[in-house]
Design goal:
The chain has helices spanning 25-33, 46-50, 54-58, 78-90, 105-108, 120-133, 153-162, 185-192, 210-220, 237-247, 256-274, 276-283, 287-290, 298-304, 310-323, 325-330, and strands at 3-4, 7-8, 14-16, 38-40, 44-45, 69-74, 95-100, 138-143, 167-171, 201-204, 224-227. It is α/β, with parallel strands linked by helices.
C-alpha cells in the first residue's frame, strides 16, 4: 500500500494531474467516479490567495467525495508561498502540493513553476519553509530540469526529501521541451531506484493507454502514475488502466450513451459550480475530446461551443444520442 504520510492512496495509485483550466471540481468529479485515486486542484497562485483574489480562492473549493485530494500552489517568493500554504491548509485538503513544474512562460520565466529549477537552493529553502508551516503532508511536482544541461533530478529529489516532502511526482520532460518530444522515464527511474530515496515517486508524461501504463509500471518501477492530458474527455482511462493491470484484459470502451451521460454530469456540475454563463463557457474546451472520433461531428460541435443556454446544450446532446448510435457502433 502506497502512503503519503499517513494517507493510503492504493497499491499502485493513479493520480489526476493538476491542469490549469481543466482540473476543476466538475472535471475531478467525473475522474473520481471513473477510478482516479488521488487528485489535485488546478495550480493556485500564492499571490492570488494572499490578495484574496476571487479566482484563486474559488480554486480552493473541494468536496468530500474527492478525498483524498491535494491543493497545489505556485509562486516565486518564499514568504508568499509559506502564507499561501497556510491558507490552503485551512481548506482542509489531505495534502499541500508545490508546483515546480509548470513550463508556461508567464509562470516559469518569473522564477515560479519550472523556473525554480534554475535555483535549486531556493527551491529547497522554499520547500523547507512550507513543510514547517503546515501540519499536512507536503508533496511536490516537478520536471527533470530547465533544459538538458541542467538535469539534476536525483539531487533535487534528495534535497526535497531531506527537508520533509512526503512524495514526489516527476514529469519526464525539461521545461525547454514544454509538452513536445518523448518523456524520459529513465531519469524518473533513476530517482525511484536510488538507494537514498524512500518517499513514493510518481511518474508523469505520455501515459495514454492501459498497455503503456503496465509497460512503464514494470519497466521503471514507479510507485504510481499521474495522468494529465489523456484524461481530458476520457476519464474512463483510470478504470481501464486498473482493470488491465489486474486482469491483463481491456475493458470495453465507453458507449456513446456513456460519453453523453458523463458529458451531461460534467456540464451540470460546471453550471452549478460556476453559474450558467461561466459554466457553459468553460465546458467548451471539453466537447471535442468527449466526442473525438465521431465522423461529421463539426455541426454539432459548433452548436455546443456557441449556444449559451444550458437547456439548449442538453438538447444538442440528446440529438447526438439519437443521430449517432449506429455511426458510433461502426466506428
Amino acid at each position: 500500500m502506497v502512503k503519503i504520510g499517513n494517507i493510503e492512496v492504493g497499491e499502485f495509485p493513479l493520480l489526476l494531474a493538476p491542469m490549469e483550466d481543466v482540473s476543476d471540481p466538475p472535471f475531478r468529479a467525473v475522474c473520481k467516479e471513473n477510478g482516479a485515486d488521488l487528485m489535485y486542484t488546478e495550480f493556485i497562485s500564492a499571490e492570488g490567495l494572499i490578495r484574496d483574489a476571487a479566482k484563486s480562492v474559488q480554486k480552493l473549493d473541494i468536496y468530500d467525495y474527492e478525498r483524498p485530494i491535494g491543493i497545489q500552489i505556485f509562486g516565486d517568493k518564499i514568504e508568499s508561498m509559506r502564507e499561501a500554504a497556510a491558507i490552503a491548509e485551512e481548506a482542509q485538503p489531505e495534502l499541500v502540493d508545490i508546483n515546480y513544474g509548470c513550463p508556461v512562460k508567464k509562470v516559469a520565466c518569473k522564477g515560479a513553476g519550472a523556473g525554480i529549477l534554475l535555483d535549486i537552493p531556493k527551491m529547497q529553502k522554499m520547500t523547507e519553509e512550507i513543510v514547517k508551516q503546515v501540519k499536512l503532508p507536503v508533496t511536490v511536482k516537478t520536471r527533470l530540469g530547465w533544459d538538458d544541461s541542467t538535469i539534476r533530478i536525483v539531487e533535487v529529489a534528495k534535497r526535497l526529501q531531506d527537508v520533509g516532502i512526503q512524495a514526489l511526482t516527476i514529469h519526464g520532460r525539461t521545461r525547454q521541451q514544454m509538452y513536445k518530444g518523448v518523456a524520459d522515464w529513465t531519469k524518473i527511474a533513476e530517482v525511484k531506484n536510488h538507494p537514498d530515496i524512500h518517499i513514493p515517486i510518481f511518474g508523469n508524461g505520455d501515459i495514454d493507454s492501459p498497455e503503456k501504463a503496465l509497460e512503464y509500471k514494470n519497466k521503471y518501477e514507479v510507485d504510481g502514475i499521474m495522468i494529465g492530458r489523456a484524461a481530458i474527455g476520457y476519464p474512463w482511462i483510470f478504470n481501464e488502466i486498473k482493470y488491465f493491470l489486474e486482469t491483463g484484459k481491456k475493458l470495453e470502451e465507453p458507449t456513446l450513451n456513456d460519453r453523453i451521460e458523463v458529458t451531461k454530469k460534467h456540464l451540470d456540475f460546471s453550471v452549478q459550480w460556476k453559474g450558467e454563463k461561466q459554466g457553459l463557457f468553460e465546458m467548451r474546451r471539453h466537447y471535442t475530446n468527449y466526442f473525438r472520433g465521431l465522423p461529421n461531428f463539426k455541426p454539432y460541435r459548433m452548436k455546443l461551443v456557441t449556444l449559451d443556454s444550458h437547456a439548449e446544450i442538453v438538447e444538442v446532446l440528446q440529438d447526438i444520442k439519437e443521430n449517432f448510435q449506429e455511426v458510433y457502433a461502426a466506428v
